[in-house]
Write a structure and sequence with these properties.
Number of strands: 7
CATH class: Alpha Beta
CATH topology: Rossmann fold
Strand content: 15-25%
Shape: globular
Number of domains: 1
Structural class: alpha/beta
Number of helices: 7
CATH architecture: 3-Layer(aba) Sandwich
Helix content: 25-40%
Strand order of the largest sheet: 3-2-1-4-5-7-6
Amino acid sequence: MGSQWSKDKTYIRAKQSGYRSRAAMKLKEIIQKNPVIRPDDNILDLGAAPGSWLQVLREMTNGVIVGVDLNPIVPIEGIITITGDFSDPAVIARIQEHMPEVNGIVCDASPKLSGQRSYDQARSIELNEKALNLARLLLKQGGNLIMKSFQGEDFNWMYKKVKQEFYSVRTYKAHATRKGSTEMYIIAKNFIGTWQAPKESDSDGSA
């Protein structure tokens, strides 16, 4: 985007640090304020292109990291990348091949903005739903989620849906967010899951 934002302080700091985009500084800030990634976590990054969040994640964990995006991601050493729609069953199968256990999911995905705020916000919520559905499917119990959303009429509805799946949920607006943006991150800790394994006592005496 050739805009007033292309040379802002966050962009300059990101480039000086060797990151692919200014978004890296947002993730670093989010994790500093909300420590949800452990040194051995396997992390799935949704909407990962161009790869700046993958770069930051590689600094934070020695676990398996997989990045998924509709657009190809220039390779990063030690990172697995998949090109495709993260809600596509074929893409999900490929994720599972590389990650039998997922401890954390991060999602910085955004729709292509039309400039019509209500329409763009609705499409963002749709992406949030897809990311949450994938978390329900893949995320290990006790796992964590960081997901970008946008404030608007459907934001509270989405927030409540996330709260149904995690023990602790909060919102966070990064200082590195561009002025005037309605961007908001949902930080969800300790995944409960809608499916619970039966307790040992539940199976006592069963055939």
